[in-house]
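quick one, 115 residues, struct below
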Amino acid sequence: EVQLVESGGGLVQAGGSLRLSCVASGFTFDDYAIGWFRQAPGKEREVVALISSGGASNYADSVKGRFTISRDNAKNTLYLQMNSLKPEDTAVYYCNARVYTTNYWGQGTQVTVSS
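---
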């Protein structure tokens, strides 16, 4: 059974930093691209950053230069380092993996940035 478990969210002031983690199980982590999405109240879920099995990364324009996605295949763990946080980054952040033809999601972790 595929499982994705996020952690690391919290309340931070604007300009601060947080690091999110996502521990994956139930599939061969090294073989798949994996990513972070977020959903703010009243808005659709949007992609934040993706990282390929080989380590190539892509970012939403809104987070480029502030967020860094990385993966530790030995620990089956995905990370998102978030710096220079802004109030508009407030959202529930989700880890996502598409294994074969199925999209899997974690339960989400809340990030709140105060102004």
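The longest strand covers residues 91-99.
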